[in-house]
Predict the structure of Propionyl-CoA synthetase.
Amino acid sequence: MAYKDVYEAWKADPEGFWMEAAQAIDWIEPPSKALFDENAPIYEWFADAKVNTCWNAVDRHVEAGRGPQYAIIYDSPITGRTHKITYSELRNRVATLAGALRAKGVEKGDRVIIYMPMVPEALEAMLACARLGAIHSVVFGGFASNELAVRIDDAKPKAILAASCGIEPGRIVHYKPLLDEAIEMAEHKPEFCVILQREQEVAKLVEGRDYGWHSFQYGATPAECVPVEGNHPSYILYTSGTTGQPKGVIRQTAGQLVALNWTMKNIYNVDPGDVFWAASDVGWVVGHSYICYGPLIHGNTTIVFEGKPVGTPDAGTFWRVISEHKVKSFFTAPTAFRAIKREDPKGEFVRKYDLSCLKALFLAGERADPDTITWAQEQLGVPVVDHWWQTETGWAIAANPLGIEELPTKLGSPSVPMPGYDVRILDEGGHELPAGQLGAIAIKLPLPPGTLPSLWNAEERYRKSYLEHFPGYYETGDAGYKDEDGYLYIMARTDDVINVAGHRLSTGAMEEVLASHPDVAECAVIGVSDDLKGQLPVGFLCLNAGTNRPAEEIVAEVVKLVREKIGPVAAFKQAVVVDRLPKTRSGKILRGTMVKIADGQDFKMPATIDDPAILDEIREALKSLGYPKS
Ligand code: COA
Ligand code: AMP
């Protein structure tokens, strides 16, 4: 069948489409139907089924004879280690960890926070939770204590699983002190922590609260897979919204199983047994869907890569991994390719390796710029697929579904909507716009299986943030257009979210940190274009009257403060002191206009601007930071 036929088949009979996809899953009790719309606009999928994620991702493959196949290949150029784990070994490791957690009281529905670097134990921790029906929440290692504390207070975990440290080029990330500080800060206290001691740093354990990873599991009775309802939350993943309070995206068990399994063949074009690699981090949605769950549910081998695209040790590291482990389908962020291209523009490293195993490259996390796509196409000689999705959706909204049909690539477009997604471009009033016109991108409800049903502890916020603006639709927060052939173009965010090196960050959260500095009266943070990371945050500070300390000192302090409060991942390194911020007469800061000045783009003077002269001051301030770049 061609893509058009598949998409039309879904449209004609969504219930039949998803019930058929559901047949690929091992159910303890199969669902009586696919969509549960009794509480519309809150929708659930396969809600009345009984199922277990870990069974589907691990045990069933062992039962089916895949026991000797590698489930996980850990490749860590930063430590020089590799470790391959078969499906049989994985089952034993996960069952034992789950048994130890259960012996300490972790049960179905309990929350468990996982704060770990890219090591196989991070996936094992996720799967052990899934085995028990416990709900995990993985926190990215680049976040600081304060961010971790916010998540502890929201998720209220019974246990935290962590590592003693992470390793970044040139420095050790001291996870354990960060964890201790976060627990100290949080109101909610976990009952216990399990710490994976790494040889690079052995952490001090808190007597009575902390256990070493191995001693904790010693002698534990392996746990069997606990049946859970189809709508049981599989995990909570916090993502940036417009404020400092992150949104806890909920993923439900059955929808995730059915949808991710469907994508592995239809989008990524891999068959069970093939090696699939997503070079991201378990702390992001890509890590949840395509390092851990998707490939394992589908019986693939997944790669856990602890390194960077460049510098560990060189710009050929991705090609070495692909060649050595026979990766068939590879997924990363465009920023990684930009970093490689910068160091190896002629692709000399690419030619050092036999990459004949590689059949496709997938890019997501930020807009894939045409230069990057063209370079990747030329170097690798395989289809390069830009695909668009979000933490909220858990899998691609738009893609080029290579397993169904390779559609013509259009540079700058993540191609076409996937079955399950009825994507519309709307004007402010919610009217559909014709092809070629830029508008808000919305998806007609219901969203497909595997997408978020709501936010953790915050259904009202879910309704307000996503459903209220355009009744009957999910608002993606992205703006863009469709062309005559139905290809989508994703152009910008409509909110205060920026995208730095494929990481989603909230300028609102950074503003909250800047505003907490005693000398700062008012502030704004904008995302300016950056050749490598896509965007970089820049802060503007108005100081309290009477502050007479040097501006550089205050700038250095706020840079430090953002690193301490949000974490290094914010990449907040630039700020400037200004007298005033440009505003509308009603007091709204004109961030969009500031971005245009920073990027050297033409802009129309906003009709509602209070004092146009302030824009000249902003221009000067940006010039002092080297913007616009060209
Ligand atoms: N734990 C602790 N700190 C981390 C971290 C982690 N897991 N990941 C990143 N950081 C730190 C980095 O060390 C860096 O700190 P620094 O300010 O001391 O240099 C900071 O956070 C910013 O990190 P990042 O934006 O990732 O930049 P980078 O300099 O580490 O490298 C590139 C970025 C350019 C190499 C980029 O191409 C890349 O690989 N980005 C990641 C892409 C990705 O996986 N995105 C996920 C969505 S698919
Ligand atoms: P995250 O939730 O971290 O995955 O970030 C999701 C956001 O990243 C989207 O809403 C987009 O703004 C952006 N994004 C992700 N993939 C793409 C893509 N292929 N093209 C353009 N923007 C993208």
In short: The longest strand covers residues 520-530. The radius of gyration is 24 Å. The longest helix spans residues 87-103. Residues 117, 141-142, 166, 168, 173, 280-281, 284, 286, 308-310, 333, 335-336, 339, 365, 500-503, 532, 568-569, 571 surround coenzyme A (ligand 1) (CB under 6 Å).
